[in-house]
Design goal:
Helix 1 (5-17) crosses helix 7 (173-183), helix 5 packs across helix 9 and helix 9 (219-250) packs across helix 11 (268-281). The protein contains 12 helices and 10 strands. The relative contact order is 0.10. A hairpin with a 3-residue loop joins strand 8 and strand 9. By secondary structure, it is an alpha/beta fold.
Length: 356
């Protein structure tokens, strides 16, 4: 008897995702034990040997819930039972919230990816598969829209980035649950997924159903399609900004400074990306910069009137001095870098034309 419809859909998605890998390569499935990643791991265990590949698994214990270590050990045993080898279970410490720190969801995500990077390097994996579905993509786009995070967030999660691949971005969450049922697997129900203290849980259980009720079915598919359409544009702009930023840094004696006049001549879509990338290179955590931060940095170029520096996440400070926009560590309390005006100061002569 062949696989059910749900299992077949996921196996096909995994097979397509791995079609360009060289024979003998190791592919890891990141698995929390939930329906999405469990179905992914099970289908990888079936597809990998038939594609001339090796399939392994990794689970991460974030230590955020009672019994998490036992849960991780159970998930690792399930992965071995599926036939995956090697299987790794990694415990991580999630950074606590503090001034300028990201929220708990972002902190857990950062710790998880560090662990996955380490395991992939240790075992020589060609790629790591993540179990994000079409529903996850739709929620990501909606969160980005609500936060005013710009095109980068609206473009959602990429199907491929670095060593990571997401074969299930066109698969609905209901399909992964059905696949687990067809395979006789019992997924873990993470209580955080229904805890309304977490923004994504509220979006999943309150906002998306309300949108479906008001607008009709197909909202998730439309949001995911929007992400796909925007991603090519966003990646093109990112590449152009990276090249422009490299040229700017190459023409400066100090790589932490960018010439304001040159920045002013760039299209806004490129300029803001150059500034964002410069802040990240200076130490801002990925994902911690808000649209407001970018607007404030851009104002140092387009709305210069002698304003004071901008404190950014990660202990980074952006300031304008001597015709340059600088990204440095924060200054000691009470000091003001030479060449800057006190907060709220009006430009000399009331000139807001952007002249130094």
């Amino acid at each position: 008897m062949g696989p059910g419809t749900a299992v077949a859909e996921i196996r096909n998605a995994v097979r397509d995702c791995l079609s360009d890998l060289a024979p003998g390569g190791l592919v890891l499935a990141a698995c929390s034990g939930g329906a999405d990643s469990l179905a992914l791991a099970a289908c990888l265990a079936f597809v990998a040997p038939r594609a001339g590949l090796r399939g392994g698994g990794v689970t991460v214990d974030h230590g955020l819930q009672p019994g998490s270590a036992e849960r991780a050990a159970h998930v690792a045993e399930v992965l071995r039972t599926l036939g995956l080898d090697p299987v790794r279970s990694v415990a991580v410490t999630v950074a606590s919230a503090g001034p300028g720190a990201a929220g708990p969801e972002a902190a857990a995500r950062a710790a998880r990816y560090r662990a996955l990077d380490t395991v992939a390097s240790q075992v020589g994996a060609a790629t790591v598969l993540l179990g994000h579905t079409l529903d996850d993509q739709a929620e990501t786009v909606l969160l980005g829209l609500a936060r005013g995070s710009g095109v980068r967030s609206l473009a959602g999660m990429p199907a491929r980035k670095g060593p990571y691949r997401r074969p299930l971005l066109a698969v609905r969450r209901a399909t992964t649950g059905a696949a687990c049922a067809e395979l006789g697997l019992e997924p873990w129900q993470d209580p955080h997924n229904s805890d309304f203290r977490y923004t994504r849980a509220r979006v999943r259980h309150q906002v998306m159903p309300a949108l479906e009720a008001a607008l009709g079915p197909g909202v998730a598919e439309s949001l995911a399609r929007t992400a796909s359409q925007l991603r090519a544009d966003a990646e093109c702009l990112d590449d152009l900004a990276f090249a422009e930023g490299g040229q700017l840094r190459g023409d400066c004696s100090d790589p932490a400074g960018l010439e304001a006049r040159w920045l002013l001549g760039l299209p806004a879509a490129i300029r803001t990306r150059v500034l964002r990338d410069a802040a990240i290179m200076a130490g801002c955590p990925h994902g911690a910069l808000s649209a407001r931060h970018v607007e404030q940095m851009d104002a140092l170029v387009t709305g210069w009137r002698g304003q004071r520096w901008i404190d950014l996440p990660g202990g980074v400070r952006a300031l304008r001095r001597d015709g340059m926009v600088w990204f440095t560590g924060t200054e000691p309390a009470g000091t003001e870098p030479a060449g800057t005006e006190p907060a709220g100061a009006e430009p000399i002569g009331g000139d807001s034309s952007g002249r130094e």
